[in-house]
Amino acid sequence: MDNEELKPPPMSLLDRYRGQRFLPLYTTTVTISGGEAGHGRASGIACSNDGNLSVNLRLPKEFGGPGDGTNPEQLFAAGFGACFHGVLSLIAKRESIDASAATVETEISFGRDPADGGYALVIEVRVRMPGVERRIAEELVRTAERFCPYTKMAQQGSVNIVTVVD
Fold first, then answer.
1. Could you tell me which CATH number the domain at 18-70 has?
2. Which of 30, 36, 125, 145 is the most exposed place for a label (fewest CB within 10 A)?
Protein backbone atom coordinates (compact mmCIF):
# COMPACT_ATOMS: atom_id res chain seq x y z
CA MET A 1 0.00 0.00 0.00
CA ASP A 2 1.46 3.34 -0.96
CA ASN A 3 0.37 5.45 2.04
CA GLU A 4 -3.27 5.15 1.01
CA GLU A 5 -5.50 6.04 3.96
CA LEU A 6 -7.52 3.11 5.23
CA LYS A 7 -11.23 3.84 5.46
CA PRO A 8 -14.10 2.01 7.13
CA PRO A 9 -16.85 0.54 4.97
CA PRO A 10 -19.63 2.88 3.80
CA MET A 11 -22.55 3.71 6.09
CA SER A 12 -24.86 2.44 3.34
CA LEU A 13 -24.15 -1.07 4.63
CA LEU A 14 -26.63 -0.26 7.42
CA ASP A 15 -29.43 0.50 4.91
CA ARG A 16 -32.31 -1.97 4.98
CA TYR A 17 -32.66 -4.35 2.03
CA ARG A 18 -36.20 -5.12 0.88
CA GLY A 19 -35.57 -7.78 -1.78
CA GLN A 20 -37.22 -11.18 -2.09
CA ARG A 21 -34.02 -13.27 -2.01
CA PHE A 22 -30.61 -13.27 -0.44
CA LEU A 23 -28.45 -10.74 -2.30
CA PRO A 24 -24.73 -11.60 -2.09
CA LEU A 25 -22.50 -8.53 -1.83
CA TYR A 26 -19.22 -10.40 -1.29
CA THR A 27 -18.29 -14.04 -1.53
CA THR A 28 -15.02 -15.71 -0.62
CA THR A 29 -13.85 -19.26 -0.63
CA VAL A 30 -11.35 -20.89 1.71
CA THR A 31 -10.08 -24.35 0.85
CA ILE A 32 -8.78 -26.72 3.52
CA SER A 33 -6.35 -29.47 2.55
CA GLY A 34 -5.32 -32.26 4.88
CA GLY A 35 -1.61 -31.66 5.37
CA GLU A 36 0.82 -34.37 6.48
CA ALA A 37 -1.71 -36.14 8.72
CA GLY A 38 -4.32 -36.17 5.96
CA HIS A 39 -6.66 -34.41 8.41
CA GLY A 40 -7.51 -30.73 7.89
CA ARG A 41 -8.03 -29.97 11.56
CA ALA A 42 -4.88 -31.79 12.68
CA SER A 43 -2.35 -30.64 10.10
CA GLY A 44 -4.19 -28.86 7.32
CA ILE A 45 -3.70 -25.64 5.47
CA ALA A 46 -6.46 -23.07 4.99
CA CYS A 47 -6.04 -20.96 1.84
CA SER A 48 -8.38 -18.29 0.50
CA ASN A 49 -9.17 -18.05 -3.18
CA ASP A 50 -7.48 -14.62 -3.41
CA GLY A 51 -4.31 -15.81 -1.67
CA ASN A 52 -4.59 -13.33 1.21
CA LEU A 53 -5.14 -16.07 3.79
CA SER A 54 -2.80 -19.02 4.16
CA VAL A 55 -2.85 -20.53 7.63
CA ASN A 56 -1.39 -23.74 9.02
CA LEU A 57 -4.04 -25.56 11.04
CA ARG A 58 -3.07 -27.62 14.07
CA LEU A 59 -4.90 -29.46 16.81
CA PRO A 60 -4.81 -27.56 20.08
CA LYS A 61 -2.94 -29.19 22.95
CA GLU A 62 -6.30 -29.86 24.63
CA PHE A 63 -7.05 -32.36 21.81
CA GLY A 64 -3.63 -33.98 22.00
CA GLY A 65 -2.10 -31.87 19.25
CA PRO A 66 1.05 -29.77 19.24
CA GLY A 67 -0.85 -26.47 19.41
CA ASP A 68 1.74 -24.82 17.17
CA GLY A 69 -0.73 -23.36 14.69
CA THR A 70 -4.19 -21.91 14.60
CA ASN A 71 -7.41 -23.90 14.77
CA PRO A 72 -10.96 -23.53 13.43
CA GLU A 73 -12.28 -22.08 16.70
CA GLN A 74 -9.70 -19.28 16.61
CA LEU A 75 -10.53 -18.50 12.99
CA PHE A 76 -14.26 -18.45 13.75
CA ALA A 77 -13.71 -16.23 16.80
CA ALA A 78 -11.64 -13.80 14.72
CA GLY A 79 -14.26 -13.59 11.97
CA PHE A 80 -17.17 -13.27 14.39
CA GLY A 81 -15.41 -10.64 16.51
CA ALA A 82 -14.24 -8.59 13.53
CA CYS A 83 -17.71 -8.55 11.98
CA PHE A 84 -19.40 -7.62 15.28
CA HIS A 85 -16.84 -4.88 15.94
CA GLY A 86 -17.38 -3.51 12.43
CA VAL A 87 -21.16 -3.39 12.78
CA LEU A 88 -20.88 -1.84 16.24
CA SER A 89 -18.49 0.82 14.93
CA LEU A 90 -20.77 1.73 12.01
CA ILE A 91 -23.83 1.99 14.26
CA ALA A 92 -21.95 4.17 16.75
CA LYS A 93 -20.74 6.41 13.93
CA ARG A 94 -24.29 6.71 12.58
CA GLU A 95 -25.38 7.85 16.06
CA SER A 96 -22.41 10.28 16.29
CA ILE A 97 -20.93 8.35 19.22
CA ASP A 98 -17.17 7.99 19.48
CA ALA A 99 -16.59 4.26 19.90
CA SER A 100 -13.05 4.26 18.54
CA ALA A 101 -11.73 2.69 21.76
CA ALA A 102 -14.27 -0.16 21.65
CA THR A 103 -13.01 -3.73 21.77
CA VAL A 104 -14.82 -6.97 21.05
CA GLU A 105 -13.52 -10.14 22.65
CA THR A 106 -15.01 -13.33 21.21
CA GLU A 107 -14.67 -16.59 23.11
CA ILE A 108 -15.51 -19.81 21.31
CA SER A 109 -15.84 -22.99 23.37
CA PHE A 110 -15.88 -26.36 21.61
CA GLY A 111 -17.52 -29.05 23.68
CA ARG A 112 -19.93 -31.91 24.06
CA ASP A 113 -23.58 -31.31 23.27
CA PRO A 114 -26.00 -32.96 25.73
CA ALA A 115 -28.86 -32.56 23.24
CA ASP A 116 -27.50 -35.10 20.75
CA GLY A 117 -24.32 -36.46 22.34
CA GLY A 118 -22.17 -34.87 19.65
CA TYR A 119 -20.32 -31.58 19.63
CA ALA A 120 -21.33 -27.92 19.69
CA LEU A 121 -19.88 -24.45 19.90
CA VAL A 122 -20.75 -21.83 22.49
CA ILE A 123 -19.98 -18.21 21.69
CA GLU A 124 -19.48 -15.50 24.29
CA VAL A 125 -18.95 -11.95 23.12
CA ARG A 126 -17.65 -9.30 25.53
CA VAL A 127 -17.81 -5.69 24.39
CA ARG A 128 -15.89 -2.92 26.10
CA MET A 129 -16.71 0.68 25.19
CA PRO A 130 -14.56 3.03 27.30
CA GLY A 131 -15.93 6.52 27.51
CA VAL A 132 -19.47 5.52 26.44
CA GLU A 133 -22.26 5.63 29.01
CA ARG A 134 -23.37 2.08 29.94
CA ARG A 135 -27.01 2.57 28.86
CA ILE A 136 -25.91 3.86 25.45
CA ALA A 137 -23.31 1.11 25.06
CA GLU A 138 -25.91 -1.57 25.83
CA GLU A 139 -28.29 -0.08 23.27
CA LEU A 140 -25.54 -0.01 20.63
CA VAL A 141 -24.66 -3.65 21.36
CA ARG A 142 -28.33 -4.75 21.11
CA THR A 143 -28.61 -2.97 17.77
CA ALA A 144 -25.35 -4.53 16.56
CA GLU A 145 -26.73 -7.97 17.50
CA ARG A 146 -29.66 -7.41 15.13
CA PHE A 147 -27.41 -6.27 12.25
CA CYS A 148 -24.38 -8.57 12.60
CA PRO A 149 -24.61 -11.42 10.06
CA TYR A 150 -22.51 -13.72 12.27
CA THR A 151 -24.92 -13.23 15.17
CA LYS A 152 -27.88 -13.84 12.89
CA MET A 153 -26.30 -17.01 11.51
CA ALA A 154 -25.52 -18.29 15.01
CA GLN A 155 -29.03 -17.56 16.28
CA GLN A 156 -31.09 -18.49 13.21
CA GLY A 157 -28.87 -20.94 11.35
CA SER A 158 -28.14 -20.63 7.66
CA VAL A 159 -25.57 -23.20 6.63
CA ASN A 160 -25.86 -25.02 3.33
CA ILE A 161 -23.75 -28.17 2.94
CA VAL A 162 -23.27 -29.38 -0.63
CA THR A 163 -21.45 -32.55 -1.63
CA VAL A 164 -19.37 -32.26 -4.81
CA VAL A 165 -17.74 -35.33 -6.29
CA ASP A 166 -15.20 -34.80 -9.05
1. 2.20.25.10
2. 36
